[in-house]
Design brief:
The protein has about 350 residues and is α/β, with parallel strands linked by helices. It has two domains: about 140 residues, Glycogen Phosphorylase B (Rossmann fold); about 180 residues, Glycogen Phosphorylase B (Rossmann fold, 3-Layer(aba) Sandwich), CATH 3.40.50. Helices cover about 40% and strands about 15% of the residues. It has 16 helices and twelve strands. The strands form two sheets. The chain has a six-stranded parallel beta sheet with strand order 3-2-1-4-5-6, with helices on both faces. A six-stranded parallel beta sheet has the order 9-8-7-10-11-12, with helices on both faces. Helix 6 links the parallel strand 5 and strand 6. Helix 9 packs across helix 10 and helix 9 packs across helix 16. The longest helix has 15 residues. The radius of gyration is 21 Å and the shape is globular.
């Protein structure tokens, strides 16, 4: 630790986008407690789009997927990390690939989770292991800071608004005549078991338009999601428009302007919550107590919990529980949320 007492801390959360967003409160809490600390984060290219230029982050390091398979890349990463002179590593991911980065940094303190959150070689590569009491990922990760004697307050995300991305979002809203308010529908999901059928989204869009006079904007990424978005638009009765291809920063700009977000447990859901948009989350094989949209000002719809023992089983599962969610139930949740205009403001940085 430097002579002035300010620590040099590395966060090793490499993926996925949603999980990295839910790790931002840890970063913000560290900055509030240590105003003069050097705070670094190592992640993969996807989340890096959102972490770059975060006001509480000093250094962002980007590693490619599969870096552990290349000895040359391992040596390069070790050199870069050791040049940062890290003294403390926080490993909220607590998998081999994240814990190995902490080990390569040479830091004397490497803090991660105990089982069951801590898995694989992280249990050996990390030196300190915390067993959290909180079920939700945000609260559990904030608990890691107890190892540094940090008391945390309300969670903050502090995602910046990037001017160029905001301009793209504003142009889309104006061009699509959405200035009177709109709902964002996100049919995409990383796992098939998390996908709500496009036909259900289309029916929801039609109900929102016909009964509430509220149009929907369908966001998407990649060819599969574009196909789903096209089907939603076809079934919407003319009440849904397709968003253009967007970067994550541009998507954040669109989400800031929406009255409501509807989607499953995936990155855009957590991005919407982080930028201040109310959410209706759709859940099947994951549990909202652990990974729901953060805060009690959102709403979750789950027909039943489609339980599996491992994350691999959940990824390979069918979307039976998602198909069991009716558009009418989701519409009612949307009506409940649309009674409110905005989320409660984040607490001040001070």
């Amino acid at each position: 630790m430097p002579l002035d007492g300010s620590p040099r801390i590395l966060i090793t959360r490499t993926s996925a986008v949603g999980d990295c967003i839910l790790t931002l409160p840890m970063l913000c809490a560290l900055r509030k407690h240590y105003p003069r600390a050097m705070l670094a984060w190592v992640t993969e290219p996807g989340p890096a789009q959102l972490l770059g230029e975060h006001p509480d982050l000093d250094q962002l390091l980007v590693v490619s997927k599969g870096w552990l398979k290349s000895l040359t890349r391992i040596k390069e990463i070790r050199k870069t990390l050791q040049e940062l002179q890290i003294d403390t590593v926080l490993d909220p991911q607590s998998l081999t690939k994240s814990a190995a980065l902490g080990w390569l940094s040479g830091a004397t303190r490497r803090i991660g989770f105990a089982r069951p959150r801590g898995r694989e070689l992280a249990l050996w590569l990390n030196r300190e292991h915390h067993l959290p009491a909180a079920p939700h990922i945000v609260d559990a990760q904030l608990e890691l800071l107890q190892q540094l004697n940090i008391k945390t307050g309300a969670a903050r995300f502090r995602l910046p608004a990037w001017p160029e991305a905001e301009s793209v979002a504003e142009q889309f809203v104006r061009r699509s005549h959405l200035g009177g308010g709109f709902v964002v529908l996100n049919p995409g999901a990383g796992w098939e078991s998390r996908v709500w059928p496009a036909e259900s989204y289309g029916r929801l869009a039609r109900m929102l338009g016909e009964q509430l006079n509220l149009p929907s904007a369908v966001v998407w990424s990649g060819s599969d999601e574009r196909s789903a978005a096209d089907r939603i638009q076809e079934k919407s009765g003319g009440h849904a428009v397709l968003a253009p291809p967007t970067t994550l920063r541009e998507l954040a700009g669109i989400l800031r302007r929406a009255r409501l977000f509807v989607g499953s447990d995936t990155g855009p859901l957590h991005l919407a919550g982080a930028v201040g948009t109310r959410c209706v989350g759709l859940y099947g094989t994951t549990h909202p107590d652990a990974s729901g949209p953060y805060g009690d000002h959102h709403q979750v719809v789950q027909a039943y919990f489609q339980k599996y023992q491992t994350s691999r089983e959940r990824r390979r599962a069918t979307n039976d529980a998602m198909q069991a969610i009716s558009p009418e139930t989701v519409f009612q949740a949307c009506q409940d949320q649309l009674q409110f205009n905005t989320l409660p403001a984040e607490p001040n940085a001070a």
